[in-house]
Automatic annotation (TrEMBL):
Domain Bacterial virulence protein VirB8 residue range list: 21-224
Protein name: Conjugal transfer protein TrbF
Cellular localisation: Membrane
Entry GO terms, CC: membrane
Membrane protein topology class: Single-pass membrane protein
Organism of origin: Campylobacter fetus
UniProt key word Transmembrane: yes
Amino acid sequence: MSFFKKKEQINQSINNPYLNAKTEWLERYGDYISRARNWQIVAILSIIVTIISVFYIGYIGSQNKLIPYVIEVDKLGNTANVGMVRNVDIKNPNVIKYSLNTFIYSWRSIWGNPEIQRKFIFDAYKYIEPGSKAFLFLNDSYAKANPFEQGTKQNVRIKVDSIVLQTSDTWQIQWRETTTNLAEEQISDIVYRGFFKVKQIIPTKEEDILKNPLGIFITDFNFAKIL
């Protein structure tokens, strides 16, 4: 008897339209929730991947891709050797001597041509660390003796006699300054000696590479006449 009741209840459940509708609604709603949740997971993963990609692209973009090279030429101007700047070591004395020689020549030379004189000034600042004692000293030097005004009356020719290492980062330089009037008649011939402290800062920006590819900077210096 109970068997027939159970069978009857099952048949009633199957034939009950309200229960069938509820069951169908739950199935459809559950499927909708499941699909929506899947899309949410996909969207979140996409956002995470996008954020990681943006940060990675920004990191790659911030890295320097310029590799500076130094080209060595012979007396005729032909290329003798090519090397990457990052392989140039400040311990190599020739690297320091070249930079210091160029600085002395650019700083102390006086020419009557304003364009040439302007280039000398720019070249001198290329070897000075911005904001350093050397930077302030050079500013004061040009303020006290305007090279453009001097160039209207006289010329000063520079000859570097010696560049000698004194300590791990300090060099002694001795040079001669021959001053003439505009007719090239000699006015004076004076020898100077100075001490220059240097350090190397490998350039990473294109602008800095074009200015000072070896990254040799003077941080402090002083000089005096040799009597």
